[in-house]
């Protein structure tokens, strides 16, 4: 029996955290996987090479003419590889439109992963891309329902819960809180963090788990604010890329994940409205509960993974989460939707169906 030949495409340089679940899901169905991506993504994801059958590397950092040339090379390689179905891991933007435009009259089917439902509400380019893509995946049930009100395309959700696991046993620190990603104001309420951390017990340690660009004004200001509030020795951040091993070991040592999304801040313009914060899938994968502002308690799909707080009751709710960590973890383990096998099957049923 011939294997189904599937292309996974991620040429934007991000969202690679969503690929591992897709690879496992397709391998579970005995598919032949060809990955079309960048050298950067391969370098920071050493697990990929054991799961894919062929890698094709592209560089979209050049001029507009260079990018058009790379799109032509990408489409030519997809055809030469006898691909039956293309999965676009980031199915948005002008470069993707150039690719699907070339494929409009091809019998090769395209499926897209969308990371914000705003694409279906506001993007004319997305309407053009949808001339070729008939099916889309999104990253939560809430986003699926939101998207269905703005497109007639087939929509399904999946949680990409597969992450590399620590190579050694890691002791959990009951007073360690992790914020996924680096220091930045667009995705995180940094002023809010200063208020929360200042009110919490001095025993707590906080880690911003991602690269923080020390040259940015917002990062310099944040570091200065940490000094002023006496928080410098409690808050850890990285000024360079966090490698895979350190990332997973840090998560495994944590007792709480803090998305740091608050109402009436730049972070609230997107997260828990049009898209998920990256913290969500990390939490569900590692079974580390989240502390989420009570404004977002309407996201009932993750209520088994969360404790909710306000700025006023944050210290008490943080202590409550820590005290109930094991029972919260047990609830997460028992939740069928937080199971990697369930999510792989949901993905493969939709992609291959």
Summarize, please.
The chain is an alpha/beta fold. Helices cover 38% and strands 16% of the residues. The chain has a seven-stranded parallel β-sheet, sandwiched between helices. The protein has a four-stranded parallel β-sheet with strand order 10-9-8-11.
Question: What's the helix and strand layout?
Answer:
Blueprint: E1 5-9, H1 19-28, E2 32-37, H2 39-43, E3 54-57, H3 64-80, E4 85-88, H4 94-103, E5 109-113, H5 118-122, H6 124-129, E6 135-138, H7 141-148, E7 154-157, E8 176-180, H8 190-199, E9 205-211, H9 217-228, E10 235-238, H10 244-252, E11 256-257, H11 278-286, E12 290-293, E13 306-309, H12 314-323, H13 325-334, H14 340-352
Parallel strand pairs: 1-2, 1-4, 2-3, 4-5, 5-6, 6-7, 8-9, 8-11, 9-10, 12-13
Helix pairs in contact: 1-14, 3-4
Question: Mind explaining what this structure looks like?
Answer:
With 353 residues, the chain is α/β, with parallel strands linked by helices. The protein folds into two domains: 5-157, 3-Layer(aba) Sandwich (Rossmann fold); 176-336, Glycogen Phosphorylase B (Rossmann fold, 3-Layer(aba) Sandwich). It has helices at 19-28, 39-43, 64-80, 94-103, 118-122, 124-129, 141-148, 190-199, 217-228, 244-252, 278-286, 314-323, 325-334, 340-352, and strands spanning 5-9, 32-37, 54-57, 85-88, 109-113, 135-138, 154-157, 176-180, 205-211, 235-238, 256-257, 290-293, 306-309. The strands form three sheets. It has a seven-stranded parallel sheet with strand order 3-2-1-4-5-6-7, with helices on both faces. A four-stranded parallel sheet has the order 10-9-8-11. A two-stranded parallel sheet has the order 12-13. The longest helix has 17 residues, at 64-80. It is globular. The mean pLDDT is 94.
């Amino acid at each position: 029996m011939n294997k189904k030949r599937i292309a996974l495409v991620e040429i934007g340089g991000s969202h690679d955290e969503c690929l591992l679940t897709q690879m496992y899901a397709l391998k579970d169905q005995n598919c032949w996987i060809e990955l079309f991506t960048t050298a950067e993504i391969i370098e920071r994801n050493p697990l990929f090479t054991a799961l894919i059958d062929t890698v094709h590397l592209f560089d979209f950092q050049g001029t507009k003419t260079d990018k058009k040339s790379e799109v032509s090379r990408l489409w030519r390689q997809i055809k030469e590889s006898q691909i039956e179905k293309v999965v676009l891991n980031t199915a948005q933007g002008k470069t993707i439109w150039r690719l699907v435009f070339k494929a409009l009259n091809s019998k090769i089917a395209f499926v897209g992963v969308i990371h914000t439902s705003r694409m279906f509400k506001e993007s004319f380019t997305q309407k053009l891309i949808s001339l070729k893509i008939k099916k889309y995946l999104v990253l939560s049930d809430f986003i699926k329902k939101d998207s269905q009100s703005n497109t007639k395309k087939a929509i399904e959700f999946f949680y990409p819960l597969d992450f590399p696991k620590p190579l050694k046993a890691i002791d959990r620190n009951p007073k360690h809180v992790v914020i996924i990603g680096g220091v930045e104001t667009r995705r995180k309420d940094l002023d809010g963090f200063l208020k929360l951390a200042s009110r919490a017990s001095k025993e707590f340690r906080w880690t911003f788990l991602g690269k923080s660009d020390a040259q940015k004004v917002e990062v310099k200001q944040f570091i200065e604010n940490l000094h002023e509030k006496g928080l410098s020795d409690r808050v850890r951040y990285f000024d360079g890329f966090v490698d895979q091993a350190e990332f997973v070991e840090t998560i495994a040592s944590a007792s709480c994940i803090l998305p740091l999304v608050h109402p009436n801040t730049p972070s609230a313009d997107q997260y828990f409205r049009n898209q998920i914060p990256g913290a969500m899938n990390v939490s569900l994968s590692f079974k580390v509960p989240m502390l989420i502002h009570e404004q977002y308690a309407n996201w009932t799909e993750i209520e088994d993974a969360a404790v909710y707080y306000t700025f006023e009751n944050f210290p008490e709710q943080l202590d409550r989460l820590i005290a109930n960590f094991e029972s919260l973890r047990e609830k997460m383990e028992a939740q069928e939707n937080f199971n990697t096998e369930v999510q792989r099957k949901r993905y493969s049923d939709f992609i291959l169906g």
